[in-house]
Amino acid sequence: MRTHRPAGPLLIRTALPSEAPTIAGLHARARATYYPDGLPQDGFDWPALWRGTIERPDAHVLCAVRDGTLVGIASFRTAEAAPADTVTLFQFHVDPGHWRTGIGVDLHEACVEQWRADRKRTAALDVHVDNRRARAFYARQGWTQDREPEADEHHVTLRFAVRAGAWE
Fold it and tell me: I need a labelling partner for 17 at 20 to 30 A (CA). Which of 70, 72, 123, 148 fits?
């Protein structure tokens, strides 16, 4: 169930390298919601990592912008050693202040459109086992879980069948 959508239209576009610090901030806010003891200090320079991802020629970073504010991000590419028709969704986040407004659904639809354009047949992602909200979101979008995670695993792998587009 969606709540009231903000007045401004949602624009989904390719992220710019200059937006890496803003994207890293959104990423941190979203991740912090599913770590019960607080966001772990991993030592990564997230703005630099995001800039590198945005600048990768084989990657896509989409951002959702409403009223001039970046409110969602998605990062995907074909992982090394993966089949050419498989894409991995590495990051997918909506700023927590904008949850339940339809941004995630619209951003996911934009990802699927790009996957079809790129002739991908399957998408994969790893989601934190304790992130029940995200797991429920992905299930509503048609993602399925391969297996139950082991007791010591922190992530579970989900798969999505990209339905054929006009290219078939």
Answer: 123
Instruction: Note the helical H segments in 17-161.
Output: 20-32, 46-55, 103-117, 132-141
Listing from the earlier edge strand, what are the strands of the sheet with 86-94? 10-14, 59-66, 69-77, 86-94, 122-128, 155-161, 144-145
The CA distance from 92 to 123, in Å, is 13
Angle (CA) 105 111 114, round 5°: 145
DSSP 147: S
What is the rounded CA–CA span in Å between residue 121 and residue 135? 21
Place of tokens 């991802």: 53
Taking residues 42-62, what's their average pLDDT?
A: 94
Mean of per-residue pLDDT scores for the chain = 90
In sign, the C-alpha dihedral spanning 132, 133, 134, 137 is positive
Q: Could you read off the pLDDT of 82-137 as tens digits, one per residue? A: 999 999 999 999 999 999 999 999 999 999 999 999 999 999 999 988 888 999 99
Structure tokens at 73: 């991000």
Residues with Cβ within 8 Å of 11's Cβ and at least 6 positions away in sequence, in order, are 64, 65, 66
